[in-house]
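Hi R.,

Here's the input for the adenosine-5'-triphosphate complex you asked about:
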Amino acid sequence: MSKGFNWYHFSSPQTFYPLAGKMIPWFWALAALFGIAGLIVGFLIAPTDAQQGEGYRIIFLHVPASWMSMFIYLVMAFWAALGLAFNFRLSAMMAQALAPTGALFAFLSLWTGALWGKPMWGAWWVWDARLTSELILLFLYVGFIALQASIDDPRRADKAGAILALVGVVNVPIIYFSVKWWNTLHQGSTVNIAKSSMAKVMLVGMLLCALACWMYAIAVALMRVRKIVLERERHTEWVKAELAQEK
Amino acid sequence: MLVASHLECVRGERSLFRNLAFRLDEGELLYLQGRNGSGKTSLLRMLCGLLPPAAGEIRWKGETIGRLGEDYRRELCFLGHLNAIKEELTPLENLRASAKLADTPLDEDLALEALETLGLAGRADLACRYLSQGQKRRVALARLVHERKSLWLLDEPFVALDTAAVELVAGLIGAHLQRGGLAVLTTHQPVNIPAGTVRQLVLGSC
Amino acid sequence: MLVASHLECVRGERSLFRNLAFRLDEGELLYLQGRNGSGKTSLLRMLCGLLPPAAGEIRWKGETIGRLGEDYRRELCFLGHLNAIKEELTPLENLRASAKLADTPLDEDLALEALETLGLAGRADLACRYLSQGQKRRVALARLVHERKSLWLLDEPFVALDTAAVELVAGLIGAHLQRGGLAVLTTHQPVNIPAGTVRQLVLGSC
Amino acid sequence: MLNAVFSLIARDLRLGMRRQADIASVLFFFIIVVSLFPLGIGPEPDQLRRLAPGILWVAALLATMLSLPRLFADDHRDGTLEQLALSPQPLGLIVLGKVAAHWLVSGLPLTLLAPVLGLQFDLSSEALQALTLSLLIGTPALSGIGAIGAALTLGVRGGGVLLSLLILPLYIPVLIFGAGAVEATVTGVGAQAHLSLLGALTLAGVFFAPWPTAAALRIALE
Amino acid sequence: MLNAVFSLIARDLRLGMRRQADIASVLFFFIIVVSLFPLGIGPEPDQLRRLAPGILWVAALLATMLSLPRLFADDHRDGTLEQLALSPQPLGLIVLGKVAAHWLVSGLPLTLLAPVLGLQFDLSSEALQALTLSLLIGTPALSGIGAIGAALTLGVRGGGVLLSLLILPLYIPVLIFGAGAVEATVTGVGAQAHLSLLGALTLAGVFFAPWPTAAALRIALE
Ligand code: HEM
Ligand SMILES: Nc1ncnc2c1ncn2[C@@H]1O[C@H](COP(=O)(O)OP(=O)(O)OP(=O)(O)O)[C@@H](O)[C@H]1O
Ligand SMILES: Nc1ncnc2c1ncn2[C@@H]1O[C@H](COP(=O)(O)OP(=O)(O)OP(=O)(O)O)[C@@H](O)[C@H]1O
Ligand SMILES: [Mg+2]
Ligand SMILES: [Mg+2]
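And here is the predicted structure with adenosine-5'-triphosphate in place:
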């Protein structure tokens, strides 16, 4: 009972709103911290690559962005499913708040990949499995956002979005394993790098950058969730009180 | 048998009604009244299970309709503002298709009989597209002749019907009630239904 | 003013009526009656010029309506079974668009007033898709408040309206007749229209 | 008189905005067709560059054709078409208004989008210019000619196919001169001749087509 | 129970026959897309042969996608969908019936037509076989997956685009394996692997998709 109670307590928008407000600055601070550390490792400590020159440093943005784009989708689908199954108001809002950030990372992954691809493969874009499935991921994010935006009734928008998010989950393993299942132009998974000489430094740099992205994603999502809560609950007493207080 | 309690209906940001409750027993007619936009259609759709109520619950024979699911739908006959007939098909085909869907298949003779009852004898083989407004409504209403469901939810069944047809349909509803059926009805026309108990429910002004 | 002679209507292979004739003068109402499918809608569409009669002719102020063309249409207001409103647009936008098309532009205040007359005050800015059946019909009828056309052809205007709205629209028709307008009306509902001369025309059974 | 026509255009545009589908689905379809081909065909850039004008023009033509069945169908279904036919304006003029609105929500956005998609195919800047110009001149003809087909097939059994059947032969010249203009530029011949033929087609399409269309609409309403 | 579903399929097929448009317009669109490309691209037979699998598959995919918006929209507009949702059968089963009917009037005729069109492109008989087989196996997935999108966008502002936006990402794998199978045959690698992946997609699409579709339909009816 007490466990269940806690859950319901924190999943109520009213209790969550101030809590989120308190957490946001911490996540921003962590994001900055990890970001700076990652940049130092990536740009100052990591040596220049023999074959790829300085250009390879784009990996410190490319890989974290790719990871995050997939991870955020999973989290988003999780919240959406929870909202659909149990009618939790807050979790649907979480899903809605995560989507734009996920889309941003998917876009970044594609963009940095394309930038990198030009010198590496001589083309901005090739239709290989990894690239295509990442593009599909971006489409899924955009579709999710567009679907929610074009349904006026927020309850219906949540449910429809949740169904789409759940259906799209199949794409994530496809992205991840695409390099294994098909032989592609794209680089294989981490193991390849681990064998190379500068693996450790690079891995640390990438992990730091990934952590920074993660913290950033949480901070931004929390901010967005607060906004959504205010908008959706604007007729309730507590929001009116909250807004009056802020003024 | 059909019991609604504490029902609330919210559309957009407008609450159409709240704390609505009624009870309907066998052989009884619930006559829903209210201005345009007062929420009659919305209430009927809630009673069907199409629209989840914002609050409150609806019970059929003591069980909530959400839980009953298909078992509830098997006893239900809903007729909405829309006729649910296909313009490309003939009245006969329309009627037989809807009967099969409701799991009460109908052979051709019975179907023709039902159509005849509704005055469509000469039109059974004409695509519904060519029918007049009232004739289309009659095709939709032909289901009432043969489907033996216990709960009828009728949303303005008399629209576009001429006076003879209105009387006919009123008679069908009366016979249904006599058999121990339940019916919920909305209409803006003054109609005389030969029913035992008629409960009136007036929805608030919009 | 509006004179029809020897009209015949053929739909498919069925002749709905033949040798139909009437004359309608200023301030008069023609009340079309008949069973479902007897050809009321078809006759109204002939009077509009949408459906060419199989035989006979229709004259407006002595001239056949085919010859008059746009000049006839300028004096005409037709309301059919369909509402001719766009579900995506708001009542206000719908009303103003149809007014402009009829060459009787309407500023926003007047349009709002017309909608208010029909009891849509609070709904002027809601997409018509969300309106109830009766409210949609009211939007279509709002044209009658301001359009100053001399001939009204109304095909079951009262469908889906609640009693208050029926009275209101009946009043609008009455006022139109008082101003010297002409009106042709079909309806299956018993309605009391405050008109001077009412001519009845009963179309044969189908 | 023109006032009413402009207001009709405005209404149609507003509807387009409200639905968004009308504009965006044509555009999106265009993007899809154009981007799917590399997926199906294979990504060799040289081959793609050679195919680009054809693919882009075919895609524009298909996208326009797809939006045609709805040109009058929505108005027909909800009774607006009757009201249009009964308005005191000549129906031909009203049709012209609808054609203009149709072009504004389909042909024009396609034209604006085409150079961006052309970039994907690595086209040279002159080729891109020729492409845009040919689409700008040619797409109004697609809307105008298409309206005839849309009106003729209104409410007819099997409307969709019939429409394509009727319209397609009339579209082929537009396609040939349009894609031809781009190819001529690429091969350095100069697109002048193609473009003026295209212009002639458009003038004919836009100013002649509304009258048969209006007649067809009246028949559909009987 | 299954009885009602079969009768639904029969009704949809009869509607398709009555309208003809449903079947023929999809087919005709397919033919148009496939035949227009040589017009736009130029008639070199070698190049055409190379492009054929891609063009045919893209065309089949587009043709299916185009017929999707109407999958539930007609039933929604005339109130039939309410009645379907209120019938005593599980809605998922009813959706399965509608998907089957949709495939029978779109995917199947496409499949039967494809080899004829493939001949036009001078494809070898093995390639034609692989094409037909891949379409036969793959098109049910298109109908099944498409139903989800059609249900999600039912009655939604901007439905048409949204539908393409939602469905397209999910169609891409089908396209890749489908066209891949034909290409693999042409290059002599053997289509086995591609075809079994396609089969898996179809099984998943047809038997998994009706449930989210049914849920989405209930939401649309609220
Ligand atoms: C637009 C094009 C590209 C996209 C969509 C893309 C996508 C991705 C994704 C999703 C991942 C993470 C998956 C995983 O960890 O297994 C990833 C990792 C990676 N990408 Fe890309 N990529 C693109 C272009 C490139 C290019 C051009 C290169 C360099 C030649 C590259 C090199 C890498 C490397 C080295 C990793 C890390 C692999 C690992 O450690 O697991 N990518 N990319
Ligand atoms: N999104 C929305 N925002 C505001 N109001 C809405 C919204 N959707 C629906 N409504 C309102 O909800 C009501 C729906 O009413 P409903 O269709 O149940 O009425 P009704 O009693 O059946 O009317 P009628 O007699 O005209 O059929 C209407 O008043 C409509 O304006
Ligand atoms: N192709 C056709 N073949 C046979 N009969 C047809 C055909 N097209 C129309 N009809 C008949 O023509 C009549 C059309 O009637 P109309 O719509 O004018 O009737 P109405 O008097 O307005 O009826 P309601 O009161 O129901 O609106 C109907 O009886 C219809 O069955
Ligand atoms: Mg109602
Ligand atoms: Mg009528």
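One thing worth noting: The interface with chain E takes residues 88 of chain C (CB under 8 Å).

Cheers,
M.
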